[in-house]
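Sequence design from tokenized structure. All designs in this work follow the same two-part layout: the structure record, then the generated sequence. An example of the structure record is given first.
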């Protein structure tokens, strides 16, 4: 069984990049919003707190109870996450004299700390924040600085807790991946044994166990997300998967038939529904883009619902979508 990392999302634009870097290290991770964390914390080996557009000094600061994590599991705070750990554990975060955005260099590094193993002084990092940590908690020590940011990184003594005010997940942080590797593999002792193939195999087994011999209906868009979902479902339940691919009249020339042929070539049980005239007629004289979006959305639901009712005995509705959509739907 793979060892997992929990990424708690505070709304950062870079959260998905954190997950990508973690998985590039062959470690499985999951992103969950700070305000809807319905998971078993015991099932995760380490925790990462993301950045955020909010300030820990603000009345609108995003709060999360760290009592079951801090000092219990290895914890890494990135930007807002680092400031949150410091500010609400006896430290002090203040507004920076100027917004710190862009490239910077670590002018001082504590090479005895395992977080910076293999890094050299001067390595480039990426800053993106308007607050800075003025004072650390009493039981913390500074382990890296830049010319402008004294407490660019800190650790809490006798706890596997770290904070960094830069973003190791972005390309511009040259040794960012090494820092994440140090935290996850060297400090948290996570085995890097996760692969996409392992995820695929596990997902197919879970579908078989959950769905059994029931019928499943899936709407296909022609895109990557719904297609991946269809292939995984097909491998799990075969012809009990019923796919519906609707032509809304807005596809490129000959795309409907081309995509339909590809789906059939994959062995999918798919029905193509050409409702292009229906959609185009509804959109006639509709000029406002937002209104067009609503018309298209409602029309698709009506068509899909009509076709779904023709499939007798279906008990499950499947959806393939991207990770950010899942996070936004439950946050």
């Amino acid at each position: 069984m793979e060892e997992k990392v929990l990424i708690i999302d505070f709304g950062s634009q870079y959260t998905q990049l954190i997950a990508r870097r973690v998985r590039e290290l062959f470690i499985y991770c999951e992103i969950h919003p700070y305000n809807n964390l319905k998971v078993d914390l015991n099932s995760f080996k380490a925790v990462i707190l993301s950045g955020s557009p909010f300030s820990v000094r603000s009345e609108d600061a995003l709060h999360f109870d760290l009592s079951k994590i801090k000092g219990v599991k290895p914890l890494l705070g990135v930007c807002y996450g680092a400031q949150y750990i410091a500010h609400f554990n006896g430290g002090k975060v203040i507004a920076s004299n100027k917004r710190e955005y862009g490239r910077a260099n670590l002018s001082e590094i504590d090479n005895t700390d395992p977080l910076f193993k293999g890094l050299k002084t001067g390595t480039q990092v990426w800053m993106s924040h308007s607050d800075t940590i003025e004072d650390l908690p009493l039981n913390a020590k500074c382990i890296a600085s830049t010319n402008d940011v004294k407490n660019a990184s800190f650790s809490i003594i006798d706890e596997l807790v770290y904070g960094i005010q830069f973003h190791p997940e972005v390309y511009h942080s040259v040794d960012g991946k090494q820092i994440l590797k140090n935290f996850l593999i060297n400090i948290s002792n996570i085995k890097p044994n996760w692969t996409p193939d392992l995820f695929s195999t596990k997902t197919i087994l879970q579908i078989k166990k959950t769905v059994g011999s029931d019928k499943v209906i899936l709407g296909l868009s022609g895109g990557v997300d719904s297609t991946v979902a269809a292939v995984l479902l097909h491998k799990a339940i075969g012809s009990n998967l019923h796919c519906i691919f609707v032509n809304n009249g807005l596809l490129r020339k000959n795309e409907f038939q081309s995509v339909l042929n590809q789906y059939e070539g994959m062995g999918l049980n798919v029905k193509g529904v050409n409702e292009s005239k229906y959609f185009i007629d509804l959109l006639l004289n509709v000029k406002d883009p937002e209104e067009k979006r609503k018309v298209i959305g409602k029309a698709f639901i009506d068509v899909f619902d009509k076709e779904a009712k023709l499939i007798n005995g279906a008990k499950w509705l499947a959806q393939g979508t991207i990770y950010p959509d899942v996070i936004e739907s439950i946050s």
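The radius of gyration is 24 Å. We note this feature because it recurs in several other targets discussed in the main text.
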